[in-house]
Write a structure and sequence with these properties.
It contains four helices and six strands; from the N terminus they run H-E-E-E-E-E-E-H-H-H. It has 118 residues and is of the alpha+beta class. Strands 1-4-5 form a three-stranded antiparallel β-sheet. The chain has a three-stranded antiparallel β-sheet with strand order 2-3-6, with no helix packed on it. Helix 2 packs across helix 3 and helix 2 packs parallel to helix 4. The longest helix has 11 residues. The model has no long low-confidence stretch (mean pLDDT 87).
Length: 118
């Protein structure tokens, strides 16, 4: 965490030094799950331990744990307004409009074209 504060350092001494520098570390209790979302995937930790280090008002979150074996592929979130627009423009059900939007990666024009061709 800090250069020179490695092995052999008394943990109480480290806490005292951190307190003198205005650094506090607190654990978040009863964490059930932590999810890291990227554009394409989600990494899920079921056994996570989360600590917050506050140094002069800047908070840093530290995560310790083992991620699930496989990352989850994120499902594309389609806004309801987009579904309604495609359904109105093409005269299909909202379910069919949502499916077309998923197939076209959320592209409204492509979804309308696909449904209009059928």
């Amino acid at each position: 965490m800090f250069p020179g504060l490695g092995k052999g350092m008394n943990p109480r001494k480290v806490k005292q030094m951190m307190k003198q520098m205005g650094i506090t570390v607190t654990d978040i209790e009863d964490v059930e799950e932590v999810i890291i979302r990227t554009a394409d995937t989600e990494i899920v930790f079921d056994d996570a331990t989360v600590s917050i280090m506050d140094a002069s008002g800047t908070k840093t979150y530290q995560l310790t744990g083992t991620p699930r074996e496989q990352e989850r592929v994120r499902e594309l979130m389609i806004p309801d307004d987009d579904v309604k627009l495609v359904a109105e423009q093409t005269g299909v059900s909202e379910d069919a409009a949502r499916d077309a939007l998923k197939e076209s990666s959320g592209d409204l024009a492509d979804a309308i074209m696909r449904l209009s061709e059928d």
